[in-house]
Amino acid sequence: MSTGTGATGARTTPTPPAGGGWREGDPAGRRRWVRLPGGLRLEAGGELPGPRGADSPAGVRLAYETWGTLAADRANAVLVLHALTGDSHAAGPAGPGHPTPGWWDGLIGPGRALDTDRWFVVAPNVLGGCQGSTGPSSPRPDGRIWGGSFPFLTTRDQVAAEAQFADALGIDRWALVIGGSMGGNRALEWAVTHPDRTGALLLLACTAAASAEQIAWAGIQLRAIRADPDWHGGDYHGAGPGSGPHRGLGIARELAHVTYRSEPELDERFGRSAQASEDPWSGGRYQVESYLDHQAHKLVDRFDAGSYVVLTEAMNSHDIGRGRGGERAALRRASMPALVAGVDSDRLYPLVQQRRLAALLPGADTLRVIASRHGHDGFLIETAQVGALVRELTTGRIPRPGPPRPR
Q: 49: exposed, middle or buried (C-beta count within 10 Å: 0-12, 13-18, 19+)?
């Protein structure tokens, strides 16, 4: 869908549906699905129930994509975990069912760092997401859309769902678990909750616990969405095209995107220049405002506001030491080989957070620093540097799996 705007930033092209993201009836693309047979009990209380029948569209399911071939001994599986607005399409072109190209396309494929001639790479869409996995835009067991009644999720709930997902694939132990930002938080939770199932660990631009500042930025984004008159408490999915909380979601995305990039990059790219023929003194935009509008419209076309709320709240819940005797005690559980890397220009997840992780994880050595002008998004953009870290972990350092885990 085109995302052009006029001088005031208003959309001048066809409006998106009330809720963005993948919907039943859309092309599946490369997606496949795993349904959790027994549902999922949640850390905050309650549960996501299982399906009422084998053919029920409800229940808890995760969409996923794979690349490569699972070895006979199942020892070559790699779990790739996406960030907030990512999905299972980590590699490959845009096309039917996939509105954007793979977000880590430069990392996954024959001859690349995650060489699919060697590794079986698996990328699930996170629980609570909107690209095929169960989330607010999914049907409940009674057939209605979850909407605003979708329960509160934590990072641990999402990893619990991914552990059942791994069981369904027959994977007892991942050779490597890798993730950045929200995906890095989940990768860390995997290593602490399931150290016997995590052969090696690569953490990028993440933290042991959401900080006050990260919660503050996220909280403002949540308020922007909930203040949209078309939010309706999260029950907007039955509205017509253009009637969803697009303005609130767009503002949330614009605010988030500023934290994802660095101040020097924005100043170098845009400075104080006006957008094309627009005059900021007469209601027009600066180039940087036009850029943010473009980012907002792109997200509104492909993402669901309800999922944005659920996933952001899950990110705010992240605290690896909760109920485990604190951060230091929790991290001692994760003794597998590990690399921790941060981006030198990241102002959202600053290097001090990754430095602490590297110091406390028993299997990690010194912090690795990704040099990038792009800020937090550097972990997605600097694929050559990330690829070098992957190769370091996958060249002789990953131990062979032990005996199969009892089921």
A: middle
